[in-house]
Amino acid sequence: MKVVVGISGASGAIYGIRLLEALKQVEIESHLVLSDTARITIEYETNYKVEDVIGMATMVYENRNLAAAISSGSFKVDGMIVAPCSIKTLSGIANSYNNDLLTRAADVTLKERRKLVLMVRETPLHLGHLNHMTAVTQMGGIILPPVPSFYHLPITLDDIVNHTVQKALDQLGIEANLFNRWDGIEQRI
């Protein structure tokens, strides 16, 4: 299995990092592209260096390289996850504005009818944001904002991050066992 991972410059770089860690853990080939601002956000928001994050991926591409393997539909992958996905990246994908590799790879994923999962990281949302999300959804993409849930009784921030990352992986049929799944509540009668 091969998964393209895009990390944009939105807040929440840890989602992309944890995604790469999970893919490595379950031995799935990852193809990474970082936006220029992702490189800044990674080092600002986390204890990771960009080189550490790059080292987690099977293959890494420069965002300016529109001739990279992942820019073509003939390069077979099983899907793509953008974590986090900035509004700028969302807008580029929604409008098929392929000015960099991250948006081009997402566009290719959609045109090839492969799974594209966008962890859109913004709040509050205005109508323009919602329209872009609607457009991507109509093209077959999946909008999966990192919205925490609490039924798995998280204790740490990592627990919350892991839950969202596993939800994204679920869209591609990948089990990394990152949280305890809901199995119902016994109700007394």
From TrEMBL:
<keyword id="KW-0637">Prenyltransferase</keyword>
<protein>
    <recommendedName>
        <fullName>Flavin prenyltransferase UbiX</fullName>
        <ecNumber>2.5.1.129</ecNumber>
    </recommendedName>
</protein>
<dbReference type="InterPro" id="IPR036551">
    <property type="entry name" value="Flavin_trans-like"/>
</dbReference>
<dbReference type="GO" id="GO:0106141">
    <property type="term" value="F:flavin prenyltransferase activity"/>
</dbReference>
<feature type="binding site">
    <location>
        <position position="151"/>
    </location>
    <ligand>
        <name>dimethylallyl phosphate</name>
    </ligand>
</feature>
<dbReference type="GO" id="GO:0016831">
    <property type="term" value="F:carboxy-lyase activity"/>
</dbReference>
<comment type="function">
    <text>Flavin prenyltransferase that catalyzes the synthesis of the prenylated FMN cofactor (prenyl-FMN) for 4-hydroxy-3-polyprenylbenzoic acid decarboxylase UbiD. The prenyltransferase is metal-independent and links a dimethylallyl moiety from dimethylallyl monophosphate (DMAP) to the flavin N5 and C6 atoms of FMN.</text>
</comment>
<comment type="similarity">
    <text>Belongs to the UbiX/PAD1 family.</text>
</comment>
<dbReference type="InterPro" id="IPR003382">
    <property type="entry name" value="Flavoprotein"/>
</dbReference>
<keyword id="KW-0288">FMN</keyword>
<dbReference type="InterPro" id="IPR004507">
    <property type="entry name" value="UbiX-like"/>
</dbReference>
<keyword id="KW-0285">Flavoprotein</keyword>
<dbReference type="Pfam" id="PF02441">
    <property type="entry name" value="Flavoprotein"/>
</dbReference>
<feature type="binding site">
    <location>
        <position position="35"/>
    </location>
    <ligand>
        <name>FMN</name>
    </ligand>
</feature>
<feature type="binding site">
    <location>
        <begin position="9"/>
        <end position="11"/>
    </location>
    <ligand>
        <name>FMN</name>
    </ligand>
</feature>
<feature type="binding site">
    <location>
        <position position="121"/>
    </location>
    <ligand>
        <name>FMN</name>
    </ligand>
</feature>
<feature type="domain" description="Flavoprotein">
    <location>
        <begin position="1"/>
        <end position="171"/>
    </location>
</feature>
<feature type="binding site">
    <location>
        <begin position="86"/>
        <end position="89"/>
    </location>
    <ligand>
        <name>FMN</name>
    </ligand>
</feature>
<keyword id="KW-0808">Transferase</keyword>
<feature type="binding site">
    <location>
        <position position="167"/>
    </location>
    <ligand>
        <name>dimethylallyl phosphate</name>
    </ligand>
</feature>
